[in-house]
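ok trying this again, last paste got cut off
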Amino acid sequence: MAGHSKWANIKHRKAATDAKKGKVYTKMAREIESAARQGGGEPESNYTLRLAIDKAKGVNMPNDNIARAIKRGTGELQGDAFEEIYYEGYGPNGTAIIFKCLTDNRNRTVGELRSTLKKGGGTLAESGAVAWQFENKGIITIPLEGNDPDEIMLLAIDAGAEDVEVEDDIIEVVTARTDLQKVAEELKKNGIQPENVELAMVPQHLVSLSVEEQLQAMGLIERLEELDDVQEIYTNIDFTQEAMEAAG
């Protein structure tokens, strides 16, 4: 399972130092607004909001921006009503892709997804076409450096985690969606600070591609991530270390 997170974790680390802060902050603000609109503006009682705030802080989003996004979500400030929608598609070589989008205009979002996919050798798919290949899971990633994988495994499994794997410099803890908060808080209580905690669509099986094909897929995913309405992208591609190094 850990292979699925390799690309995602590189993306998270890149976002934290990305020069295009405006776009990153806009996406974070949308996610915070949506979470506050759905579950209220108190992170203590709205775990989805707390995850969104933590993600925003992870890319150094100013506290004032976070506070304004929460108020737009709760209606204290005027803001657009963004709708959370999942779209599905095929990437190069028939690989599966799921897009988590926040949009105020479905037609615009679909048009941009379809155009970008087509240019990158992919296509937009009907609802349900690829979603069956993924599962809703909680994912906790922890830096390997300075941590004992065996200790983390025991703590995580005792707290209700489904799986713990180590790959390269990452320890990945996989939980049921409903157990993410419990497991993450148990790890933090024992002094283990995760690098990232999120709800994700995890592929049941990974697809192996050549390095050249992986690089093509990475280029497409990066272009898709640039779209304003796209919040997260999930794919079943097994990105190898060789491809990661080739991509720089």
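PB: full thing came through this time. The first strand starts at residue 83 and ends at 90.
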